[in-house]
Specification:
Layout: E1 6-12, E2 18-19, E3 24-25, H1 27-36, E4 41-45, H2 48-59, H3 69-91, E5 97-103, H4 105-108, H5 111-126, E6 129-135, H6 142-155, H7 167-178, E7 180-187, E8 192-193, E9 202-203, E10 205-208, H8 211-222, H9 235-248, E11 252-257, H10 262-266, E12 273-277
Parallel strand pairs: 1-4, 1-7, 4-6, 5-6, 7-11, 10-12
Antiparallel strand pairs: 2-3, 8-9, 11-12
Helix pairs in contact: 1-3, 2-3, 7-9, 8-9
């Protein structure tokens, strides 16, 4: 792993885990991803709320929950989290343990809590275990989160405050926390396109001579980004913004379609968007 402590942080989004037309989990995605995970990697996964929604509908005649959106997200997340972990356990090789790590913004904005999580992740790598990280939506109220973030900004020393409610940000923060050679963002597209309607415009390699240079190139790429895969997500532009800090510490960032084998993405066999500083 050269000077890096971890081979890869792998993040997968909610919609990449689902067969949207069938309103069901895409077990092929879980299987391909799970098979290639190994100690020295950390998986950051979304999907609990969407999977909880699907499970609730199955058990309630196809009906969805009604009421306050924040309450619904909380309830779906609580219902879906165990199913998400159970499904990963089914497909990750049995010789490896898996360890669930649910985080909130408060963990990453407190140096002692962040250090506690860092040691947990390091121990997992040395104990034949794969950490699976997700934001703890079931116990995180948006109103309280915004208040706490605002208070941190007002009382802080001017340092960067992270929210982590977007798992793209969570993955980038984890990458910086442990030191990872690669940050792999798995999505429902092959990467970043100059024209999202034209597959031939995939941007495959972006190299910067310095953090400032790669940031300037990313800012240009963000102009091509529009739309998101679901309500509440921030899309490709957020992935690029959150990638900046990881790139500044020498991590290679790869944005690729989740349908491909992880090992093929990491080895460069699959066309995708790759960003790095040289």
């Amino acid at each position: 792993m050269s000077h890096f402590e971890f081979d890869a942080i792998v993040k997968i989004g909610s919609m990449a885990l689902l067969r949207e037309k069938d309103n069901d989990l895409d077990y092929n995605i879980f299987s391909r991803l799970g098979y290639d995970l190994k100690p020295g990697m950390i998986l950051v996964t979304s999907g609990a709320a969407e999977i909880g929604r699907i499970d609730y509908m199955r058990r309630n005649g196809g009906r969805e929950l009604r009421g306050d959106k924040e309450d619904i997200k909380t309830d779906y997340s609580a219902q879906g989290q165990s199913i998400l972990m159970e499904t990963y356990r089914r497909f990750i090789p049995s010789e490896y343990s898996i360890r669930q790590v649910l985080v909130e913004h408060s963990h990453m904005n407190d140096s002692e809590k962040a250090e506690h999580i860092r040691h947990l992740l390091y121990r997992a790598a040395n104990q034949n275990a794969i950490p699976i990280v997700n934001y703890n939506d079931a116990v995180s109220s948006e109103e309280n989160r915004k208040f706490e973030i605002r208070t941190l900004m007002q009382n802080g020393d001017g340092g960067h405050i992270v929210e982590c409610v977007d798992n793209d940000e969570t993955a980038a923060v984890i990458t910086q926390l442990v030191g990872a050679e690669k940050l792999i963002l798995l999505t429902s597209t092959e990467g970043i396109y100059r024209d999202p309607s034209d597959p031939s415009t995939l941007i495959e390699t972006v190299v910067g001579s310095s953090p400032e240079d790669i940031n300037a190139k990313i800012d240009k790429m963000i102009r091509y980004c529009n739309g998101t895969s679901r309500d509440g997500s921030n899309g490709a532009s957020a992935k690029l913004q959150f990638a900046k800090e990881a790139l500044s510490m020498g991590t290679t960032v790869m944005i690729a379609h989740a349908r491909h084998r992880l090992r093929d993405i990491m080895s460069g066999k699959i066309p995708c968007t790759v960003l790095r500083v040289e």
